[in-house]
Amino acid sequence: LSIFLSLLVPAHTTRSPDCGGILTPSGLRYRKCRHPHAESVLRKDLMVPPAPDPSPASPNSRSQIISVKVDKFSLTLIPDTGMRLNIEVDLGITSAPSTTKEMRLSIQADLHVDMNPEGNLELVTSDCKPTLEEVQSTEEMDRSAPHKSSGSDVDKQINVEKICLEVSRLLLFPNERLMSLAAPFPITPSCQVQYLPLAAPMYSDQGIIISLQTTFQVAGTVIPLPVSPVPFSMPEPARSSPSHLILAFSEHFYTSLFSALEESGALNVSLLSSLTTATLAERITQMGSLFQEDLPVVLQAVTRSSPHVVLEEDKAIVKLFLTAQIGTGSSLFQSFLSVNVDVTARLHLSVADTRMIISVAAIEDIELSLATSDVGPILAALLEELFLPTIREEVPAQINVVLRQGVFLPHIASFTYSDVNITIHKDYVLIPCNLQLEARNG
């Protein structure tokens, strides 16, 4: 009964990760352009001139912040919990033209990444503790050492409770960038890839661990992919990594990628042979009666089943299963022979900016077999001799044309990757790299 019911009820897609990343403590310390952004947000509201005091007895007694400078900005990892943000800000505060105080505003906030109802990752604050210290006063130079201001002094100089609101505004910019993580990226004109977070990240000594599930769209429709035989979990490095980010991709990810390309028709190729019907007739006498004129011989190869990628230590292999129709003509193709072609090719992986460049480096094995028996199986060896050179040369070349634009890696807008090191292991690929903020967005 349960088997019968399972045939009636549509199967739900299992959400399981096939890739992910670890943002390391080194990545959290990558601080290019944090100071300018923090200063602009804090300066925008803290330097607003105070409203006029309605009391006629003290018309100009209220303090005003005349300068905001971020001196320190750090984000540290708290394993199993989240992150801690520490900001130290030097403030210049004046209550009269001749009196200026230098204050030190220290902000400590606990942050973590949640998953919002829309399925996007979102940086939120759970605790915020601002403190204010006086550094120097033009009227009291002998009190130049930092000390805690009294509660009344703090109230006069700055609204400390407002600071936690400013911290929340600091998170608006990175949250806009986090949303771009789940944006669809093009692979070919008709095929797109999208990386969807499965849950809020986890925090370990190694860094912030994010698990992602890849989906592929062909002509705007999400396509079903082969089910991963082995659940994938983000492999943690045995020791701390100096890289900012460690990306990991499962074997299933690469098989899904080639399956999506196969679904979109991108792996179907047309191969122009060096043979003609006349030269072919010299070896296969039956061809002489089929064609009255000498015509070029063409192979039109289409995938007959889904490709498969195998990852071994320092080696990535793709297996393609094609059916080649051998015939003549380009606009009006006339097939006279059908051949199954199984190709095993080695892959080369590299990274440029935020794209993984995959190319067929070399064909390691080709098997040809007759798909039809209308000419007889004795021709198999002859077909290999005649068409193997064309297949060996043209199949990698045409697939590389499809792949040359690369496949976008999971990334956040404005950032690219540098100092990339790719390591192929059994069942997965590790890509340690550093973050690089694009200069035009600095």
UniProtKB/TrEMBL annotation:
Lipid-binding serum glycoprotein C-terminal domain: residues covered: 239-433
InterPro entries registered for this protein in UniProt: Bactericidal_perm-incr_a/b_dom, BPI_fold-BPI/LBP, Lipid-bd_serum_glycop_C
Pfam families in the record: LBP_BPI_CETP_C
GO molecular function, one term: lipid binding
Gene3D superfamilies named in the record: Bactericidal permeability-increasing protein, domain 2 (3.15.20.10)
Listed PANTHER family: BPI FOLD-CONTAINING FAMILY B MEMBER 4, BPI FOLD-CONTAINING FAMILY B MEMBER 4-RELATED
Name of the molecule in the record: TENP protein
Organism of provenance: Panurus biarmicus
